[in-house]
Amino acid sequence: MIIMAGVWPGSAQNRADLTEKEVLRVHEKSLTIDTHCDTPMNMLKRNFDVGRRNNTGKVDLPRMKEGGLDAMFFAIFISQQARTETNTRSAYDLAHEMIDTTVAVIGRYGDLAGIARNAEDALIMEKSGRRAIYLGLENGFPLGKELSRVEEFYRKGIRYITLCHSYHNDICDSSSDRAKPEHNGLSHFGRLVIMEMNRLGMIIDVSHISDKSFFDVISISLAPVIASHSSVRALARHQRNMSDDMIRALARNGGVIQICLLDEYIRDPDVNNERYRLEREMREKYDAVKDTLSEAGLAAFRKEWTEMREKYPKDLPSVADYVDHIDHVVSLVGINHVGIGSDFDGGGGLAGCNDVSEFPNITRELLKRGYSENDIAKIWGGNFFRVFRKVESIAAKISSKV
Ligand SMILES: [Zn+2]
Description:
By secondary structure, the chain is α/β, with parallel strands linked by helices. The chain contains 15 helices and 9 strands. Strands 1, 2, 3, 4, 5 and 6 form a 6-stranded parallel sheet that branches. Strands 7-8-9 form a 3-stranded parallel sheet. The two termini are 31 Å apart. The site of zinc ion has 5 residues, from loops.
C-alpha cells in the first residue's frame, strides 16, 4: 500500500529559529548511511590515505566523522570493457585486488572504522564510535557468465551488486548504452543472478540499468531492491534517473531510491555552455575507440578529461535543489522509500555539499522544510536498513526451505 503524502513536509512550521546546535543534534542522532562512493579507486593510489584528512578526493575517515556519517558503501567500481575472455578475467582480478586493498587498508585503521557485513554491524560500530564500511560491486562485469562468482564475492564481503554500468553486459541492458538493447532488459543469466542474490541475501542495486531491466528485476526479485545512487527524472531528465512510474514500482516492491548528488542528475545541464559541448565531444570520441584502447590511451583520455573539467568548472546545483528530489519522492510514495547515495569520488558533489564532511547541510535543509526528526532518521538510514534487513531475512527463509 502506498501512503500518499497527506502531510506535506513543505507545510513547515516556521524554522527561522533553527540553530546549528539543533541541526547537529538531529544529524548525530540518526544512524546515517551513504550508499555509494567510489573511494576504493583512490585507495589504490599511493598518495591517498583514507585514514587521514586529504586535500584530494571527497571521502576519508576523518571527514566522515566530521560529517556525522556513520556508514558508507565503498563501491568496487569496474568499468565496462568489451566482453572478451581476457577483459573479463582482468575485471575479475581487478575486483579482487580492489576488495583486498580496501579490506587491508580499513583494517589498518581499526580504531576509526571496520568492514561491515550485516545490517546490524552499522549500529554496533556506531555505538563504539567507528565508521562502518560496507562493500558494493559496481558493475556485474567481473562475474562474466559464472553464477558461482556471486557467492564468491558475497563471501569476500560484497553486499550489493550494481547489475551493470554505462554499457550493456551479460546480465542486463544499461540505461546509458547508445547501442540498441541487447537483451530487452534482463538476460537469462541476469535472471539467475537475481535469484542467486535473493538466496544469498545480497542487495540488488538497480542504478545504471535500463528502464526495461528495472521492471524485469522488480517482477522477479523476491526481495526489495535499492537504487544506490539515482535521482528523479521528473526534475532532471537524465536517463540514469528514475521515472515516477519506476519510483512507484520501487515503492510497491518495498525498496528505496538513494538520491544521488551528481549535478546532472539534480538539474538539467545548460546545453549552451562550453563545458557541456566539450564533455559531449569527448564522450563521443571515447565511445568510438573504447574497445581498442590501450592502458596508455585510457590514461591519456582521463588526463584530458580532468584538465578540461578543471578549466571549465561547473555551476553546481545547491542543497535546496537536491532536497527538491527528496520532496518529489515523498510526495509521490511517502517517506519510506527515499535515502542518500552521494557518488562522491565518482562524480558526485554539489554547492554546499561537495564532500562527505558537509552532509549536515542536507539535514539543515530538511529541518527547514519541516521534516520531523523521525522522517530525517528514515531518510538518512532507516529506510535503507529496513530494506537491508528484509533482504537478509528473505535469504534466511529461502535457505531454511532448502
Ligand atoms: Zn555509478
